[in-house]
Design goal:
The protein has about 300 residues and is of the alpha/beta class. The protein has ten helices and eight strands. It folds into two domains: about 210 residues, Spore Coat Polysaccharide Biosynthesis Protein SpsA, Chain A, CATH 3.90.550; about 70 residues. The protein starts with a strand and ends with a strand. Bound molecules: uridine-5'-diphosphate and magnesium ion.
Length: about 300
């Protein structure tokens, strides 16, 4: 019998852990011809999440978990889950039931038939989300897809069922700075997305703040595009061209008004500020790439487990 592993990252989700389990067990009849194992990954929760998972694990032998020594972030949790999953097919799901379990069966059929290596889910609406957040997210997909060779599917969730082969490919990417949306796409393979309408969490709160999301998007750019570096070079070249034009103008003006030696202090200040700004911005962008090299070169582990069962 083929086996399906469910990888579920959980961070301060004491209220949703059991609800998720119940929802999957209810859906279970639709794929009862598969063995099922759960891999909850407790991402260093500070509430009773781990306790709740342990309670479930006592009831059901198919429930396993990895518990981190601290909060490492969802990307690390996903990696740990994939690493421990033993299934022929692996599903990645959020615990808050924003990823509808009803889609699991169709995803599984798509992958197990061999037609697809991964079937994911993509939300077509963003109801229930602050407008400004949707707007920024649209902008993010537009920008990153115009700058990166790796196509990032708009609205795609991490929710997906993957073949063993694809999971192994993802695990072979050992990078420390992980941006799953990019990694899922970078590995290639045949992938399909089912569309569905956005759902609210069953309980608890999202752990993403606006700035958290902003940082996450910047990480995406740095990890999957070198275009920002090109932009820096273009800005530098433009400034240089303008400097030459300026020099010519100054020279010509000196020929026309040979007796006036000082012209345009205010404009000089503006130019200095503009150039200083461009330089600092460029330094910042280059710095982000260097800091990623720095982190990669330390070869720190992607996560540290405190408990595995
Ligand atoms: N999560 C995690 N580590 C974190 C933040 C979130 O493992 O540092 C998990 C969380 O428990 C949930 C999933 O990632 O299962 C998605 O988180 P959330 O619902 O907060 O994000 P959203 O759905 O708002 O994008
Ligand atoms: Mg959620």
């Amino acid at each position: 019998m083929a086996k399906l592993s469910l990888v579920v990252p959980v961070y301060n989700e004491q209220d949703t852990v059991a609800l998720f389990y119940d929802a999957i067990e209810k859906e279970r009849k639709n794929f009862s011809n598969y063995e099922l194992e759960y891999w909850y990954v407790d991402d260093g929760s500070s509430d009773k999440t781990l306790e709740r998972v342990e309670q479930l694990a006592q009831k059901d032998n198919n429930i396993h978990y990895v518990s981190f020594s601290r909060n490492f972030g969802k990307e690390s949790a996903l990696y740990a889950g994939l690493e421990h999953a033993t299934g022929d097919f692996v599903a990645v799901m959020d615990v808050d039931l924003q990823d509808p379990p009803e889609l699991l069966n169709e995803m599984l059929e798509g992958v197990s038939s061999g037609e697809w290596d991964a079937v994911g889910a993509r939300r077509t609406t963003r109801d229930g989300e602050p407008l400004i957040r949707s707007w920024f997210s649209k902008l993010f997909y537009k920008l990153i897809n115009s700058m990166s060779d790796t196509h990032i599917v708009e609205g795609a969730r991490d929710f997906r069922v993957m073949s063993r082969q694809m999971v192994d490919a993802i695990l072979s990417m050992k990078e420390y700075n992980r941006f799953s949306k990019g990694i899922f796409s970078w590995v290639g393979f045949k992938q399909k997305y089912l569309e569905y309408e956005n759902k609210d969490r069953v309980a608890g709160n999202t752990s993403w703040s606006f700035f958290g999301l902003l940082k996450y998007s910047i990480e995406g750019f740095i990890d999957f595009s070198r275009a920002p570096l090109l932009i820096v070079s273009v800005l530098g070249s433009l400034a240089f061209v303008m400097a030459i034009i300026g020099a010519v103008l100054v020279f010509v003006r000196a020929l026309i008004h040979p007796n006036v030696s000082a012209f345009g202090w205010p404009s000089l200040v503006v130019i200095m500020l503009a150039l200083g700004g461009i330089q600092l911005l460029s330094l910042g962008i280059v710095g982000r790439y260097i800091s990623n090299i720095y982190l990669e070169s330390k070869r720190r582990p992607i996560y540290i487990a405190r408990k595995v069962k």
